[in-house]
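User: Sequence in, structure out. Go.
Assistant: Echoing your sequence, followed by the structure tokens.
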Amino acid sequence: MTEPGVVLALGEAPVFQPGDRIRVADRSPIGHYRVPAYLRGKAGTVEAVIAPAGIDNEEEGYGRNAGTKRHYYRIAVPLRDIWPHYAGSPRDGLRIEVFETWLEGA
């Protein structure tokens, strides 16, 4: 919780919270990226905000980051949504930590 009158800088406050429905962005950048192709476009749920905020690795990889920090999130994606013929429990899911720039509200 932020104190009254305190304005947070970009990236200091998480965009998403546990329980939020999200979608992993479906884009195909050339070069440096950190999201498995099989998860792009898939919907899931935020389980946790990872603290503290981290430096944007993709921008950093190209020398374009000026210290901007954003959050990683542990998300859960149902396995049946990743692999349509998955025969296990519908409650089974993949947990993965994904950087904020790859997540969209669902």
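User: And one key feature?
Assistant: The first strand starts at residue 21 and ends at 24.
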